[in-house]
Specification:
globular; 16% helix; alpha+beta; 4 helices; 189 residues; single chain; 34% strand
Length: 189
């Protein structure tokens, strides 16, 4: 199994910024941006959104809203009422969320925050664009216009078997009708 950083290194779809110097005839790698789809507490208006806008943790630029092309079970589980997308394609609902472009620093923060690869695993998933606000290069505009893009998603294959029997949700809101309010890390025992 590849680590999250190894997976990032091997991906060719990640947008790379290269600068060419005519004087030296060389190019220098200036950084990468990756697309991340968030469906839980990191969305706007949710308890951990503050991390997405904290530039000390890296850069995250909201691009739009989407939903998974395949169905997945989104459950709320554990004593802290954490949302988990179980990596069981074809089961559950098309899960709604938000699409962000993030830099390497934010991606590393998200890996640590999400407990990757133990609690969640970062994988590529196809996301149907529902609403696009992103301003990027021609490739991004074309992908958004075509309606489906690839994004990193934090889902899990490491969960207790009884979670499969929990109610499945198509979107997450910490204050939702489910009555299972998320417990912030700083409030946990």
């Amino acid at each position: 199994m590849l680590s999250c950083m190894d997976l990032l290194t091997q991906l060719t779809w990640t947008k790379k910024a290269l600068f060419y110097s005519e004087a030296t005839g060389s190019s220098a790698f200036a950084g990468t941006m990756a697309r991340v789809f968030v469906y839980g507490t990191l969305k706007k208006g949710q308890p951990n959104y503050k991390h997405m806008i904290n530039t000390a943790k890296g850069l995250a630029k909201f691009q739009g809203r989407g939903r998974t092309v395949e169905k997945y079970p989104l459950v709320i589980a554990g004593k802290y009422n954490i949302p988990y997308m179980l990596n069981i394609p074809g089961t559950g609902h098309h899960v709604a969320g938000e699409i962000y472009s993030v830099d390497d620093q934010m991606l590393q923060f998200l890996d640590e925050f999400e407990g990757c690869p133990d609690m969640y695993q970062r994988t590529l998933m196809r996301i149907e664009v529902v609403e696009w606000e992103g301003k990027g290069g021609v490739g991004e505009a074309r992908a958004a216009a075509e309606g489906v893009i690839e994004c990193f998603v934090y889902s899990t294959t490491t969960y207790p078997p009884e979670w499969v029997g929990l109610p499945y949700h198509d979107s997450y809101d910490s204050s939702g009708k489910h009555g299972l309010s998320y417990v912030l890390r700083e409030s946990r025992d």
